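Quick start: read one record
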Amino acid sequence: MDRAINNFFVQVIPMERDVAELRSELLRKTIHFLIALAPSMAAINKTATIAVLMIGTLGYTLMEYLRLSGVKVPVISSITRMASRPRDFDHFVMGPVTLGLGALLALLLYPSVAAAIAIYALAFGDGIASLAGKFFGKWRPAFLSGKSVEGSLACFAVVLIGAYAVSGSMSIAFIAAFTAMVVEALPLEDYDNLAIPVTVGLVVQCSLAA
């Protein structure tokens, strides 16, 4: 009987951890996908969109410092805790900050087409790559530093479709998708939220100007 009970907990506890981890990942990527609203908002009012991103990023930073100081902020603290990775426990969760700054830099540095492609690469390319790697990633060669080939290919495909929809150019879409795939594969942790939009926006803008 004792052995049966032990076997039950050996099977159930890892399953519960896996479910909790997947739930956390889905919540993180839902937040990630929401940044894709920025180009549409900027098309209506770019100044207001920039202001919203700045205020949102600064507001989150303040609330995260309050959380770490033991002050619970209604709703926000709960969402941050649920979306945190194990490495983020009892630490400042940088993901939302770099996400907001990445979209902000894209809007400030690049014209509308390049900025939109850069932000979509950030929102969907990075987000889908993470989910594909988490759910389907089997092949993880050493040079990808723990990331999966499946996730990288998913990133390439999603950015290719999004960039083509925005630019109407397959060559620009291919360049954007390849750049996003390479940068996303680097072991940058949350700082890929900065590297992806800045790099993709740069190569797209150079391609448009060529």
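DSSP finds nine helices and no strands in the chain.
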